[in-house]
Give the backbone structure.
Amino acid sequence: MKSRLVLNFSTELADTPVTFSLVKDYGLSINILKAEILPGRGGELLIEVEGTKNGISQGIEFLQSKGVTVEGIDKRIKFNENDCVSCGACTAVCFSGALQIKSPDWELEFDLSKCVVCGLCVKACPLKLFEISFGG
């Protein structure tokens, strides 16, 4: 099972290696997709975790017990599909393949499970239909 999570670290936790415990103690594989953590200031970390459902649940509980706020990535992405004209500008910059235009209908398809929240689509969309909230 895979899950994408945003971890919010307080100032006190910025230099604490809590993600190491996810690997060591809960058997999870971690892929860091984006990070903005500064010692003495806190920050956010976007990760993809892979492991058993139980392992992920226990890992999240561990993080929360240490004071880390954990949010699912789907709470951070907004795409106004209704106003999309399927111009394809966003697909040209989407290296993860989350945004694609496919035949036979040639309409934009957004696969949230592939999105790594890089933010390139926000800049590429001429209609400004993407909003991504990550960081301060």
Summary: The chain has two domains: 2-75, 78-132. Strands lie at 2-9, 29-38, 42-50, 69-72, 77-79, 99-102, 107-110, 130-132.
